[in-house]
Each structure stands twice: as C-alpha cells, then as structure tokens.
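Sequence in, structure out. First:
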Amino acid sequence: TNPSLVRALSIQSAPSIHWLQKKFNIPLDVVSQLGGHSASRTHRAPPDSFGQPVPVGYAIMSKMKEVIEIEYSGRIEIRCGSKVTNFIKEQDDEGVYSVNGVDVDRDRWFWLLSIF
C-alpha cells in the first residue's frame, strides 16, 4: 500500500464524482461498502428496475459512449478490441496536459487516432 497514493485518491475523488454527476448526469448517489472495505465508500448508480445493482464502470462507460456518439460524432471514433500504445498529449501554459489522440496497435497495424 502506498500511503501517499491512498491519500491523493481519497482527497481528489470527491471532485471527480461531482464532475461526473454534474457534467454527464451520471447518478452516482448510492454509497456502498464493497469487499475489503471497512466502511461504505464506493459511489454507485441506483439499482436497475429489477432491483439489481448497476456496476459503476458500466454506468460511467455507457454514459460516456452515449455522449461521444451524440456530441462528438465524426470527431471521436470508438474502437473495441484495440490496444492503446501511447497517448498523444499537449501541455498548456499552466502545465495541464490534454490528450489529443492515441497510437493504437490493432492486429499488428499501427494507427494514430486523433480527436481533432
């Protein structure tokens, strides 16, 4: 266990949860205790219409897919079964990085996928 990593994750996770909730309307309102946890700390979506828990990863990724297909059609391509080998990134004047594309290895073909 890396104490500094645990501290950073615990301090910085709340803003990330709030961002997902506000920006993408992802309902991460249920806080659950999962295996190995000493307390409830995992934010999840409410159960589905059958009362079954919705995996948090599925809730986030399905919403991201929907947003990309609607708001970024023609600018971002979703590819499954590909291996990202490198992130193409830029650093702004304040030192903040943004990812502008990725290098992808798919069936021994190398692709550069660019967002813009």
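Second:
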Amino acid sequence: RQSSEEGVRWQMQIQEDRINEEIMREREEEIRNIHKGMHTVNEIYKDLAHLVDNQQEGVDQIENQMENAKDNTASGLKHIEKANEASSSQCVIS
C-alpha cells in the first residue's frame, strides 16, 4: 500500500512539474511579446522624433518668411505714406 501511495505522489509531482513548466513557457512567451511590443513602441517614437525634426525645419522657414513679409509690409507702408505726403504737397489749386 505504501508503494502505491508513493506512486500516486510521484505521478502527482510529475503532473505538477509539467504544469509549472507550461506556466513558465507561457510566461516566457508573454515576456517575449512584451519585449517585441516595447521594441515596436521604441521604433514608433524614433520615427515620430524624425518626423518632428523634419517638420521643424519647414516651420522655421515659414517663421522666417513671415518675419520678412512683416518687415516688407512695414517698409511698403512707409513708402506709400511718403508718396502720399509728396503728392499732397505738390497739389496746386488754381
């Protein structure tokens, strides 16, 4: 009787070991999937940073062009005001 109980315990231990091995395999697979996901997220962030850098150059150019347009507009307004003053002073009423 003792040997049959020992056999049952041995079989239960083997079954428990198999279950634990399967659990460990599943965990390892989950860890690999998490690692893959983290790698993917990292690549997305790198791509996003690259896009932002590329767009920043365009934004800087637009900013410079807007500043130049503002300066040119101010200069043009001064020329128009001078021309208006000159034409007003030259007007002769007969």
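Remark: The helical segments are 2-89.
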